[in-house]
Amino acid sequence: xxxxxxxxxxxxxxxxxxxxxxxxxxxxxxxxxxxxxxxxxxxxxxxxxxxxxxxxxxxxxxxxxxxxxxxxxxxxxxxxxxxxxxxxxxxxxxxxxxxxxxxxxxxxxxxxxxxxxxxxxxxxxxxxxxxxxxxxxxxxxxxxxxxxxxxxxxxxxxxxxxxxxxxxxxxxxxxxxxxxxxxxxxxxxxxxxxxxxxxxxxxxxxxxxxxxxxxxxxxxxxxxxxxxxxxxxxxxxxxxxxxxxxxxxxxxxxxxxxxxxxxxxxxxxxxxxxxxxxxxxxxxxxxxxxxxxxxxxxxxxxxxxxxxxxxxxxxxxxxxxxxxxxxxxxxxxxxxxxxxxxxxxxxxxxxxxxxxxxxxxxxxxxxxxxxxxxxxxxxxxxxxxxxxxxxxxxxxxxxxxxxxxxxxxxxxxxxxxxxxxxxxxxxxxxxxxxxxxxxxxxxxxxxxxxxxxxxxxxxxxxxxxxxxxxxxxxxxxxxxxxxxxxxxxxxxxxxxxxxxxxxxxxxxxxxxxxxxxxxxxxxxxxxxxxxxxxxxxxxxxxxxxxxxxxxxxxxxxxxxxxxxxxxxxxxxxxxxxxxxxxxxxxxxxxxxxxxxxxxxxxxxxxxxxxxxxxxxxxxxxxxxxxxxxxxxxxxxxxxxxxxxxxxxxxxxxxxxxxxxxxxxxxxxxxxxxxxxxxxxxxxxxxxxxxxxxxxxxxxxxxxxxxxxxxxxxxxxxxxxxx
Length: 722
Known about the structure:
Layout: H1 3-12, H2 45-65, H3 75-83, H4 94-104, H5 111-136, H6 141-152, H7 155-160, H8 167-186, H9 191-221, H10 227-256, H11 271-278, H12 284-287, H13 294-312, H14 314-328, H15 332-356, H16 363-369, H17 374-394, H18 413-446, H19 453-463, E1 470-473, H20 478-486, E2 495-498, H21 515-528, E3 533-535, E4 546-550, E5 555-560, E6 566-568, H22 572-583, H23 589-611, H24 618-627, H25 631-644, H26 650-663, H27 670-686, H28 690-703, H29 711-717
Parallel strand pairs: 1-2, 1-3, 4-6
Antiparallel strand pairs: 3-5, 4-5
Helix pairs in contact: 2-5, 2-6, 3-4, 3-20, 4-5, 5-6, 5-8, 5-17, 6-17, 6-18, 8-9, 9-10, 9-15, 13-14, 13-15, 14-15, 14-17, 15-17, 17-18, 23-25, 25-26, 25-27, 26-27, 27-28, 28-29
């Protein structure tokens, strides 16, 4: 046979080991088990079974623990957008919206359950993609399956796989792209893998483009071994990716023009509108707080590093460091690509992301940040699988490659078989222990199968509204209340509007109008309304020259000329809900945050009852006694009294604020923590103690030095600089 014929035969794959491509460099984890003979990822039965287990195991866990009804975060917003095929919040997430829509069309379950199921399926598939990456990096079946499950049960990823959120899709696309890139780089003739990776990268841009862009340098680094094949095709690959990204956004623009029931900003009418939407310019104040500094960023980075160790487990993290070392061994372009791609992707979704964001490091912002770096947990789990493979290959005296091959029935054959099985058995035990440790740690926080916080709030609010009422909502309340009104159809007689002009298609005004113009539009609406109009207590605009009928958790707008005064009445339903909130243990920081806001506003209502001298019957005395053990209630009561009749109740307000100061460690944000010192400053100023007032205002401003903080104007009123 001529040398040319031999080369043709090799290119066709003649003589290649079963399940391996002749051009493949083989697994990269080296050791005494003759890793060049370890079968790579294939379509054989063992791989198919292990891949199925990598997906089905986490999926079963997610289905068992996902909420059966709407929860907080952005759950209600995505459910509404999905069910009504509308436009979600910036940058729009058109692909995920369509996925949720398709899932909610399934003929079983409530829409909330089906929306949560969509994230569960995407999350389980992401675990399958981690398995594929581990196999392509040289792990055998058990270590690869361990990596997939270790990622699947990590607390933060699990928490997003059971609610309607975009982050499981982002993780799926990232690890799918990485697997395709590894597959294409192993054999440049598998061009289809690179084209599929380009399509998946474009889909990532159409889902969560900031996180996709931050991970892209790591993905590009994995292509280095095949750069000669990739470089000539790069313009076409990028073209395919950009078209894939553009098409969903074009569809989103078209959807916005169809007047859907759910559309965050309304119609997208121009390129500038589209850029404003996709670039998330409206979130600039949310993503960057003027009170955040590098100490906050350092704290976030420290928290994330510790959390990765915690969720990967200590043995898993040790294996992850070992796995990273194994990938980097040998040097050269291949080692740089395989080890460096994960490192760069992890740093992009952690250190770089934290540097770009300007979050205050407090419990609430930590809850907001927590889903962003999910890829980091997956990379750490993947490295743990590679580390486990390295350990299996180097178990002294056990590694199968150290035993000579034995014919069946020959002396020593059973001993050789045990030597072959032992490393795998050890890997099974270690992997199962790590997965069990991580799952048991995450179960208390992520078993949301009986969650009903949002439902109980919606029921309480709807119960306080008369027939045919109009209710204006804003902020985080719009998702759950909107879900029950526009998806499940509860209280169809109630007309629900957004006080910010956001999300709901029945908006009264452009959400980008100045505050004064929005307030004028609300005035005109109330003037023309023939139905009772209500606001939630956290309003940011309100009709001029009108009072309120305060019902604890909702405010009725009174007739024109009522002079801004409030009328108060006892409502048994509100009182029962208040006591329920006090006794309730929130499931997560989001519930703690909303619970705190509700208790602050009800405390404000109780403070007003004290001001007007309502007869302190035993039920009200009981309510006040319970409120005096609650930090947000104490602040709400003190603020109401100081706003209305503080001079007559100085001792009582001072006692409330002293108690609040003792409890202020329960605050979830810098603003909440500073509030007690600001109110103490107001009290001191009211009693003529300017020195104490200034000291308290300065303390409040030091905690929360925001330009809009109330302490700044208070200090200037005293002739002092903030």
